[in-house]
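B., you asked whether I could sanity-check this one before it goes into the benchmark set. Here's the sequence:
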Amino acid sequence: MGELMAVNTYDPKLVILTVGGAPISGYTDGTFISVERASDTFTKVVGADGNVSRAKSNDRSGTVKITLKQTSPFNDILSGIASLDEMSNAGVVPISIIDLSGSTIMFMPSAWVKKPPTVEFGKEIGNREWVFDFDKCEFPTMVIGGNLPVGL
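And here's what the prediction gave me:
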């Protein structure tokens, strides 16, 4: 008799993004959130004799890209944050990302809109890509994990 195996499952509906405490939704099809650090964690240097050294970077800054459909009402929230920052320098907000179908958790305590998204209008519903810069995202508030098994 065969052994039943669990299947790991990812559910994009269970990825919870909050910006400034507001839960965001209305994502585009495809990649809707991406997070990238600005610098490599270590830089390798190889000497003429082949000895390898590495230098640790303490730069934990980076970018978060959020892609919403142009019809998402959450564009208004992100636009409000950008406008507030541009007018009064008060648009620095926390961003959190939690995958409830897995173990990935990311927290950026200080993030701001890098620039407003490119706005295009056409025959089809377009996208609005919001790019936020952040000052740090580091362990232990950054866990890049897998997804949980479902079944027996």
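One thing to flag: The chain is about 10% helix and 40% strand. Otherwise nothing jumped out at me.
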